[in-house]
TrEMBL record, chain A:
Its main location: membrane. It comes from Pseudobythopirellula maris. This is Putative inner membrane protein. It is found in: Cell inner membrane. Keywords: Cell inner membrane, Cell membrane, Membrane, Transmembrane, Transmembrane helix, Transport. Pfam families: Sulf_transp. The keyword Transport applies.
From TrEMBL, chain B:
This is Putative inner membrane protein. InterPro entries: Sulf_transp_TsuA/YedE. The chain crosses the membrane at residues 6-22, 43-63, 75-96, 116-137, 157-175. Signal peptide: none annotated. The keyword Transmembrane helix applies. The lineage of its organism: Bacteria, Pseudomonadati, Planctomycetota, Planctomycetia, Pirellulales.
Length: 176, 196
């Protein structure tokens, strides 16, 4: 069998069970749901506070929230390290800029792909902060708590993502 | 500004395990995310569905023992609906979600690295607009931190049992298609059968 870390992929069911059990652990050990985007909000807030203290003083965000380097921040750093470990041990390293599916539909321009990635990711994060959660915070952690907000959010974001993907790639014939 | 050291270490270890699971689950890949939305690859739904069912069983079993407590996000209607629309469109355009884009950086994907900068910009915009947004969001109705069982006046185990049944049926259907039984699942290409 060898080292399972050397395998390029695990069964999605096994990974799903792993994330489910990991969420038991996070609720029990840190009293936190698995979530990624709060760390981004806190990082941006700390950067604004450092770069423009005047803006931070007049913005009630900084009175209502206390941005910090905390458990959730380290969780994000951990995801990066975990992925590097997993990618290195299996040799599944893909230093690409323009994914093949994108290239087939929109061409091989790096500038186009990177600017669209920047603005798409920005829009996604802005939405996540409006809703106070993302695929992890709402989609997994919120849904498993049977939170009404998370089920409404998940159904809306999945439907909109399906519609957007079909608008963007619907005319792309087959698999790449 | 900083959590205690033990809590930082705990977050880091939890994150490393989460990162390994995301990378091995192949959801740090643009192709896998986009093809889920195009109904050509069901990896994302399989992982999320099983994680939700397994997670729900554990959390609701631990709840009466006081080992865990719930952390429900409020159902602020405007925030959830507008946020869901921006998030869904942004995710399909970008091709990764927040957690998987961080994992994609670990694979060396450069578009995901630029996306991480875009996510910081999006989060910064939210912080800067917070004074205007916080009032606006609350003005459209806030149903509070409510769960589906509370909303409908039912037992959580009714919901968890229902979800578990759906998951078992879906897994059984998928495995039957893969083993090449008498009723192959339409749309399952040979390429995908090898990869799962």
């Amino acid at each position: 069998m060898g080292n399972p870390l050397q395998s390029k992929s695990w069964s999605p069911y096994l990974v799903g069970v792993g994330i489910g059990v990991l969420s038991w652990f996070t609720f029990w050990s840190a009293d936190h749901p698995l979530g990624i985007t709060t760390a981004f909000e806190h990082t941006a807030a700390l950067a604004i506070q450092a770069a423009a203290p005047g803006v931070a003083e007049t913005n009630p965000y900084f009175q209502e929230e206390s941005p910090k380097i905390g458990w959730e921040w380290m969780l994000v750093v951990g995801v990066l390290i975990g992925s590097i470990i997993s990618s290195m041990t299996s040799g599944d390293h893909e230093p690409i800029t323009v994914p093949p599916l994108w290239k087939q539909r929109f061409g091989s321009s790096m500038g186009l792909r990177l600017s669209v990635a920047f603005w798409g990711a920005g829009l996604m994060m802005f939405g996540a902060r409006l809703a106070e959660g993302c695929t992890s915070g709402h989609g997994i952690s919120g849904s498993l708590q049977l939170a009404a907000s998370s089920w409404v959010f998940s159904i809306i974001f999945f439907s909109v993502a399906i519609g957007t993907a079909f608008l963007m790639y619907g005319r792309t014939g087959s698999d790449v | 500004m900083f959590d205690p050291l033990w809590k930082l270490a705990l977050g880091l270890i939890t994150g490393i395990i989460f990162g390994i699971l995301l990378q091995k689950g192949r959801v740090a890949k643009f192709q896998v995310i986009i093809e889920q939305f195009l109904f050509r690859d069901w990896t994302v739904v399989k992982i999320m569905g099983i994680a939700v069912v397994v997670g729900a069983v554990g959390i609701y079993a631990l709840l009466p023992l006081d080992a865990v407590s719930l952390h429900i996000k409020p159902l602020v209607w405007l925030g959830i609906v507008a946020g869901g629309i921006c998030f869904g469109a942004g995710m399909a355009i970008f091709g990764y979600c927040p957690g998987t884009s961080v994992a994609a950086c670990g694979e060396g994907r450069r578009d995901a690295m630029v996306g991480v900068l875009g996510m910081l910009a999006g989060a910064g915009l939210y912080v800067v607009l917070f004074p205007q947004l916080s009032g606006l969001l609350k003005s459209w109705g806030d149903a509070g931190k409510i769960t589906l069982p509370e909303w409908t006046g039912t037992s959580p185990w009714l919901w968890i049992g229902g979800l578990a049944l759906v998951a078992v049926a879906a897994v059984a259907y998928s495995l039957r298609g893969r083993s090449g039984a008498t009723h192959p699942v339409p749309g399952k290409s040979p390429r995908r059968q090898r990869s799962t």
